[in-house]
Amino acid sequence: MQISGGAPSAPGGTGPGPVEGVWRFAAPSQESSVPQARHAVRDLLTAQGLAGRPLYEDLLQGLLLIVSELVTNAVKHAAVLSPQIVVEVVIGGGWVRVSVEDSHPYRPKALHNDHGRTGGRGLLLVKAIAQEAGGACDVDRTVNGGKVVWASLPIPVARMEPALPSPASAYPVLPGPAGAPERPLPGRPAPYGG
């Protein structure tokens, strides 16, 4: 499974957040594509800085579950008319969007709860994950008559930690005579190692 696309080169290196960009990969409409897609998305999100930190753990787990459900649905319901699916990951503007495109014209109705059904709750799970995170999901038609099922989740923002005190203010000091260097309280090291 080869990922195409990428991130635009940012002048001056990467900033504090994840790299923004668009990545797409195609996979055959078969069951083995479900774990392959999930692993490919996990590896991509890791490479883009959206994994490996507690701040992003819920986002990562939610996105991986969404990818599994969307690819599973495409494989189960669209393979007859769509021998290939396309998974897309878009990172930008504080959001991550994952989508799965197939060529089958059927638009799933499972985004609305049907209490009489015993199966087919995968898209309801996708919707619940997206809503709980403050995101959204939907189904769009493609130009060629197929569909794209997508979910977008906001990227959590790290709270600013209070600045650490500078060495000069790390320890309380006693004022000295005018012009004399300050001296630390007894039992404390000097602010400048002196």
Q: How many β-strands, per DSSP? A: 8
Rg estimate, integer Å? 25 Å
First CA to last CA: what distance?
Answer: 61 Å
In terms of per-residue confidence, which ranges show pLDDT below 50 for 5 or more consecutive residues?
A: 8-15
CA-based shape: elongated
H/E topology pattern: EEHHEEHEEEE
Topology, please?
Elements lengths: L3 E3 L14 E8 L4 H15 L9 H22 L5 E9 L2 E8 L19 H12 L2 E6 L5 E8 L18 E2 L8 E2 L10
Helix pairs in contact: 1-2, 2-3
Structural features, described:
The protein is α+β, with helices and mostly antiparallel strands. 25% of the residues lie in helices and 24% in strands. The protein has helices at residues 33-47, 57-78, 122-133, and strands at 4-6, 21-28, 84-92, 95-102, 136-141, 147-154, 173-174, 183-184. The strands form 2 sheets. The chain has a 6-stranded antiparallel beta sheet. A two-stranded antiparallel ribbon has the order 7-8. A hairpin with a 2-residue loop joins strand 3 (84-92) and strand 4. Helix 2 runs antiparallel to helix 3 (122-133).
Summary of the model, kept short:
By secondary structure, the protein is α+β, with helices and mostly antiparallel strands.
List the keywords.
194 residues; alpha+beta; six-stranded antiparallel sheet; two-stranded antiparallel ribbon; 3 helices
